């Protein structure tokens, strides 16, 4: 048992004096005390040894973490940028990521502001990779989030400023995407890793993350007053210029081989989501055209490698955005007559060599809702390209547009702009197709679909839609029929200049310019020049007082003297003796019987007013909920229409629609003399345009779907309207008098109280006239 307990160490303390108490605890130890391990923090102040002997990424990581001085940092950056090393900082890997994170989080805040310009560019070269770009943006976003949550410190703001300045130098150049893609391919032989790393880079620069982070950083620095001496980076924070920069990077990738073209397709497809597709397509198209012109190879096709790997959906977005961009060029004042030729030269390399783009173009033009957003010159250019490169697609386009143009649903509900666009596309494609294969146009014009479409348009009540049907029918008849058998409507609206412009579309034949000619024309008009927007700075001049510039807060304005100087103005009041006793005051007006109700909540303050316009009259006649609105509308309708007949074209524009509504109008409120009021309104509409409405009402009476009472109404209106045109305007049994309208119009009739006395219908007046005639006869 004694072996179980053995003394390890004993410590004895001698008492120095009797007053000193003994310690309560005694130190007992069985192991020697170890020194703490040496770390990067403890060796922070020690110089880095053996920089020249660094051979691996682990050695580089240790050297960067050891907080090197300026000379050691230059040697480390030289090792990272040396192409003859056994390692590459641009390759994706854990050690590379740790080195880059240390550079961003430790080296940049410490050394960036003190480095010279060449040394800063060396550091930027080390960070120009997928991992470096992500690290800079991630660190910047972390700092911005921390500043939003807590009070900003000077160190945090300074670090944000350094990273913002670094990002301005890192994300520059029209070949940035190509450099990162090429460096990634050279550093990593595994294609799967390269593909995943490239997707991360595309998400970073093409999803709005980069431009949003830079914009947040600028806002914070401006709020803190840290950007007073540094110019901002407008293109990184302006969506249109940023999209143009992405377009130039996509073109740089397309010119580098098959694998970079696939990477460019991914970048382009993601960049369309930024919302600036027009600027993106413009930059891509112009840059590719300039590259093709510099190549001096007539057989070279811009964007050929890109379109071969681009998905069909992205091809459609590229084509549609390009057409919208070219539409803005042709609508500007500087456009010329040969604008369609220039636009065709721009679009031909994008459409002609590829079947998928030709089909996409045919689908866009056949959809009137989409093609109406394109200008007329752009549609001319597209049809010229299809006529040359794909006649089959042009014939398919002609058939699709003709089918939709004659569809009854499209005629009744499509806006006028879409119907005009469909008519123009149909005429342009028919003229171009007739020059290629006349028999195809002949068969299409003789088809039942075209005949039924023209018939549907001629039977429609919409004047513009019916006019477009007559124009298209006449134009196609010019192409396929002989001189004596051509369609001719012979109406006045078919003799205008607009009709001639539409009919001339079948004879338009546009040529296609070369890429060099199209680019020269765009540059000459200023549309192909690269625009750089300058940031506007507002400077406020300090006030100058007595020849010296003042500082500090603005001084209050000098008060303006408002007191009257000199003699004061005295107001004189008249005495009571000067009042004129001959002037009598007006009596109080009678109270309104409608306001006599004791309960104020029951008084109707929203009284119906008589209609002033024909469209308001139509709305009130359709109202079957409000009694007062309907009553006042039907009572004032005849006088309103007669007054508006010779005043503008308001009645003529709504005449047929209003006549149809009156024929079907019912009386939901048992209105007095409703049938007579409706008849008089229909007569007033008939007399507004007899040449048009009389034949139309006759057809409605015999071929329309109406009851016997409605047909009698129409025939009565025709008969009484004819009597009024013949001069029988006096009131008689066939045309009795109407109740007085609530709206009084100027007339030659006497007031009611005098009209009752002097009216010829009074028997006493008739007896007086008979007595005077007998007396006159006796005297003779």
Relevant terms:
780 residues; mainly alpha; Serine Threonine Protein Phosphatase 5, Tetratricopeptide repeat; two-stranded antiparallel sheet; 1% strand; elongated
Number of strands: 2
Number of helices: 35
As a percent range, the share of helical residues equals 55-70%
Determine the structural class based on helices, strands and strand pairing: mainly alpha
Instruction: Please tell me what the overall shape is.
Output: elongated
Terminal Cα span: 179 Å
Percent of residues in β-strands: under 5%
Pfam families: Telomere_reg-2 (PF10193)
Organism: Dothistroma septosporum (strain NZE10 / CBS 128990)
Family: Belongs to the TEL2 family.
GO molecular function, one term: telomeric DNA binding
Task: Walk me through this protein's architecture.
By secondary structure, the chain is mostly helical. Among the domains are: 54-198 and 208-233; 340-513, no CATH class; 614-777, Tel2 C-terminal domain (Serine Threonine Protein Phosphatase 5, Tetratricopeptide repeat, Alpha Horseshoe), CATH 1.25.40.720. 59% of the residues lie in helices and 1% in strands. It contains 35 helices and two strands. It has helices at 57-65, 70-81, 94-111, 117-127, 130-149, 154-170, 176-187, 191-206, 209-224, 234-237, 239-254, 258-271, 277-295, 304-309, 312-330, 339-351, 355-366, 368-371, 376-389, 391-405, 408-413, 416-436, 438-445, 448-458, 463-480, 497-503, 515-525, 614-622, 627-644, 650-663, 674-688, 690-703, 708-726, 752-758, 763-779; strands at residues 544-545, 548-549. It has a two-stranded antiparallel ribbon with strand order 1-2. Mean pLDDT is 79; it is low at 11-21, 28-49, 532-539 and 738-746.
